[in-house]
Design brief:
By secondary structure, this protein is an alpha+beta fold. It is 39% helix and 18% strand. It is built from 2 helices and 2 strands, in the order βαβα. The radius of gyration is 15 Å and the shape is elongated.
Length: 102
């Protein structure tokens, strides 16, 4: 959790996890108009949320990816989205683990 509480997973050294089971995917969707470069940047910034919620992160086996998509219906400064993106992704990851059936 945000306070370093472990929400899921085995204690270090207690379990072997398949290297193929280490991928996290996220989609950041907005109605703010984004060009290709702005969408790419939003995905990059949102990817920082992985580092805030997953330990370890960015290992050699990870296929972690963030996609950014937009309907383009609203005109707004994309910096507003970038400022919130990592926090939103981190919370979404934590929330998905809390809701996962045990």
């Amino acid at each position: 959790d945000d306070d370093a509480t472990v929400l899921a997973g085995a204690p270090a050294g207690m379990a072997r996890v398949s290297p193929l089971a280490q991928t996290t995917l996220a989609v950041v969707a907005t109605d703010v108009e984004l060009g290709k470069a702005e969408a790419y940047r939003l995905a990059q910034v949102a990817h920082d949320g992985f580092a805030r919620a997953i330990r370890p992160v960015h290992t050699v086996y990870d296929g972690d990816t963030v996609f950014a998509v937009s309907t383009g219906a609203q005109t707004e400064n994309p910096l507003v989205l970038q400022a919130m993106a990592a926090d939103v992704v981190a919370e979404a990851i934590r929330d998905s683990v809390r809701r996962e059936p045990r």
